[in-house]
Amino acid sequence: MNKVTHTSVAHDSAEKHVSGRATYIDDMVEPACTCHASLGLSERAHAKIISLDLETVRGAPGVVAVLTEKDIPGHNDISPTGLNDEPVFATDEVQFFGQPLFCVVAETREQARRAARLAKVVYEDLPGALTIAQAEEAGSALVTAPLTLRRSDAEKAMESARHSLSGTMEIGGQDHFYLEGQIAFAIPGEDEDVTVYSSTQHPSEVQHMVAGALNVRSNAVTVKVRRMGGGFGGKETQSNLFAVAAALAAKKLGRAVKIRPDRDDDMVATGKRHDFVVAYEVGYDESGKISAVKGDFAARCGFSADLSGPVTDRALFHADNAYFYPAVELKSRPLKTNTVSNTAFRGFGGPQGVLGAERIIEEIAYALGKDPLEVRKANFYGTDSDNITPYHQEVTDNIIQRIVDELEASSDYQKRREEIVAFNKTGGIIRRGIALTPVKFGISFTATWYNQAGALVHIYSDGSVHLNHGGTEMGQGLNIKVAQVVADAFGLSLAEIKITATATDKVPNTSATAASSGSDLNGMAALNGAEQIKARLVAFATEKYGCSANEVNFAGGRVQAGAEGFAFADFIKQAYMGRVQLSASGFYKTPDIHWDRDKGEGRPFFYFAYGASVSEVSIDTLTGEYMVDRVDILHDVGKSLNPAIDRGQVEGGFIQGMGWLTSEELFWNEEGRLMSHAPSTYKIPLASDVPRIFNVELAEWSTNPERTIKRSKAVGEPPLMLAASVVEAVSMAVASVADYKICPCLDTPVTPERVLMAVTRLQGAGGR
Amino acid sequence: MVSGSRRKSIRFWLNDELVELFDLPPTLTLLDFLRLNKRLTGTKEGCAEGDCGACTVLVGRLREGGLTYESVTACIRFVASLDGCHVVSIEHLRGAEGQLHPVQRALVTHHGSQCGFCTPGIVMSLYALWMENSSPVVSEIEEALQGNLCRCTGYSPIVRAALTASEAGGQSGDMLVAERAKMVEKLTALQDKRRVEIRNDEGGIILPADVNDLAEVLVENPHATIVAGATDVGLWVTKQMREISPVVFIGHLKQLRLIVADEDAVSIGAGVTYTDFLPVIAEKFPQLRAFWSRIGGQQVRNMGTIGGNVANGSPIGDTPPVLIALGAAITLRKGDKRRFVRLEDYFISYGKQDRDRSEFIESISIPYPGAGEKLAVYKISKRRDEDISALCGAFRLKLDEDNRVAEISIVFGGMAATPKRAAAVEKALLGKEWNEANVSAALRAFGEDYQPLSDVRASAEYRLLAAQNLLKRFYLETIGERRELKRGAA
Description:
The structure holds two protein chains of two kinds. In chain A, the strands form seven sheets. An eight-stranded mixed beta sheet of chain A has the order 3-5-1-12-9-10-11-20, with helices on both faces. Chain A has three domains: 33-126 and 182-260, Aldehyde oxidase/xanthine dehydrogenase, a/b hammerhead (Aldehyde Oxidoreductase, domain 3), CATH 3.90.1170; 276-446 and 597-764, Aldehyde oxidase/xanthine dehydrogenase, molybdopterin binding domain (Aldehyde Oxidoreductase, domain 4, 2-Layer Sandwich), CATH 3.30.365.10; 452-589, Aldehyde Oxidoreductase, domain 4 (2-Layer Sandwich), CATH 3.30.365.10. Chain A is built from 19 helices and 29 strands. Chain A is an alpha+beta fold. By secondary structure, chain B is an alpha+beta fold. Chain B folds into three domains: 6-91 and 180-249, Ubiquitin-like (UB roll), CATH 3.10.20.30; 96-173, [2Fe-2S]-binding domain (DNA polymerase, domain 1, Orthogonal Bundle), CATH 1.10.150; 258-478, 2-Layer Sandwich (Enolase-like, domain 1), CATH 3.30.390. In chain B, helix 2 (102-109) crosses helix 5 and helix 16 (423-429) packs antiparallel against helix 17. The longest helix of chain B has 19 residues, at 460-478.
């Protein structure tokens, strides 16, 4: 039998997905008398709570209980940083429109939702800041310590640069729009115990938050997650609120309690991708080669820190993208605003950093009258020199030149660009643009201690294998990849491997399934577990059958021990009778990484993943509407564990990134109320937004020089940033109305409105 | 209507089970009924507003010419509106021998699911397409999926699957196709032509027996909420939690779904859906064909009615601008009395229409554009498909022999509190020669006609500029310079 790793086997739940038999939390059978909870949300962005009258809520039909901060036996806090800045329920003051004030529990979900609207709250408004500009004007605090990355003397290099330019770019946020919204389902147990089914990427953190709120030890709380209906970072910390609310209610009432917010409440009350204002200054020469970069990354963090520290850090880590900056100074400013606390989202600040880098390149190109691709090539990291990042890590695995060269050729970039320039010369309403942008993305949690994972592997005496690990399945195919690795370790088919729900009582102290690290970490941990059992089985075989260790072989569902061969199940039965331990907990920690945040130096990343994309668009200069006509991608996933799954991540990541940069616009009104709070007002891409020509290839020649799981590379986040080429292609089409003399400097998302306004601005500036 | 001959239950087929409900709230949604009452949990809730498609199921209804199945969003579909229908959920979908259906098999083969939460809805939408057209092309697949959001896959593998579903097996292997004749019998047996009236603590449900009965019902219940497709009212319930009882359901009334094409105009019943009207659009109003597929998603077009789009008075409804431009008129009926109102006069102010209590829109008469007349409608939205207009402009122009403007209608949605004609712009053009200079000169008048708002969809500044540019576009098209973005026009 052939090995299953490096093959395109289907997602383990594919048949269940298509037949509606995959169980999500809301599909679980409910115990008798299950209650349903709903949150009461603030209707002010920043205000003192003068009074909170919940009598009408309590008296509403079906209401069983109303919980406020007074009902929390432990900490009224769910801040993942330990900064104690994020209450479960607001107490004296509300800090954003949509902040939870209380939780009402009723017999039915509808009753709970109705009752939640009946609270009588008297507020006294306080001054606040909603946007980055307002926060700057008001001199708002930072939610967490900023970061500076510095190498060489940027100031001096800037002064001696032949040319320099500066600018700013506004980058909008993004709602995760996981199709399955937030949900938690808590079932009380004996003593202080509670089991919480949570749609979370971070079961261990949910466990600790629930324990903290209940004032119990972590060993009383079990958190389980079989699968999520999408996560994208939106369930890394944002699940905590719902899990804590459900657990509080369940322990108080002694009944099972489920909380599933309506989509509108979900979008209003949970954090999103950070919007940024990036201010940059760059020094360069005639060839476009950069000599100095200064960057200021101001982020709208919302009212609390949440993950804004590491998110803004990662923005700086990617402010170089694939380019060598000889002298550089980058600063983050994680600003406090009276908006929902922004959080992790696929790329985790990296995409905003990448956009800043690409804007700098684009500006240089327009200033010099060059194709931006030429400027890119002039600045790519080298392999032996010019390979030190702003955080002083040496780039040792650089393949960006090869990726870009191959894509440039396969997409016929040069010829198409010439043709587009010629087309635009003819004038007319429709203009076209094309752009090629690269991605280099650092893999590892920058919080170094997160780079560890555990797994639990059992073989039962009938030969069936139970696989468990600390990663969570949100659709990315983590479970099937790990199962592929374990199946091969035992020489079994995938059908013999049972994938089981992530549970804090099986594998403790897990890290979030985030930072694209899922299969890197958990694949290794599971392999380690399997190898421990295998070693015992080999020892057993050598002893029993008098063969040497290298004569014991696991393949094709059989075990060969010297001259003797057995079906795997038969051999396991023998091992069991021979009192061999058939269970192991595996462990893995990423080697060779370290990071000194105070100094801004270290090797935060184990390796880099690379990719590039070419986008071609046409715009309508009368309305600003546009279409993405063609996209070509070449992406590096090392030696792929599962090419079909990886390709899915690349395609899906690109489209999600395209949505972020094109049609997905978050809009708060002047009161701080989110007006784009549902799919009717918040527009993620549809099938008809996908470019008709969409060529996606994996760089099959690539292999990870580091010893990762089967030499694969992480794939979750990097492809999202490939969508930067869409923005730049739109920009080129806009620039054509002024003969490419002016860089349009589009902010994102590039809505039709932004495109039309830019066209109008450029036409006014002497365009045609 | 014979009084006393009333039924006090809602009856429909759910998969292979006959459901009869005597006591149900008028606002019980099909999604809640499936998930909570029947524990059919394959159908998911993603948004509860009919926009994401995770709850897509099929509803079959006896129509002229047989049993028609259409995809609908169960989250905003009220159970009471299903009387006499066959509801098909994902659990019922399978091949003839219980194996995966070809659509499902193709999705597995092409890795069309990742998190899987949208997948049952995607399957049902593709299944509805597959029943009608088992070898679709990409544009047809995209159109069928306009009402389904997927956040993981980027859709490409789903489209690849849909393209090859036909190879996985023919229609003979499909349960619904195989059992269609039997289901027609079963549904026919449910048709008793009686008024359905259910009153309970949670309100009232009335399904009139016919249009005359509807008129009676509304006189008896002047405060009733009329529900046709529920694509708007559904959200009053799921999002605003509004009380709407008693509810009069009209989607089942055959007379309200009549389409009568005369020589000069087509008259449609108020219950005609966007999907019902599509063949007429294709034949009589080909200029509106592309626009028509940008109204909602497929599920919304299957449920939503033109009458409802007009009646609810929204300033951003898709159809009023073009209907006004065409000179459409509506028939309002109260009891036995009818009156005719020009559609442009129907919209009085924001939230206020010329419709009395107990009165309902019975039909809409839409004149065809005259010979030589130019007609166009442009919708601008952040996302091309399944989005609400930031602005929507409709233009109808008649030139005389000297190339002067003999008649012109310019109507915009999204620019004012109601769908509104650009009277000043029209005046500036009327009688003038239809040329670039005169069109440019008329642009100024837009500021007199419209003072649009800034909101989540666009700024006032953009709206005004884009509206002016749409007149430019219309002008260019009339002189033969048709320039538009095209899918796949790389």
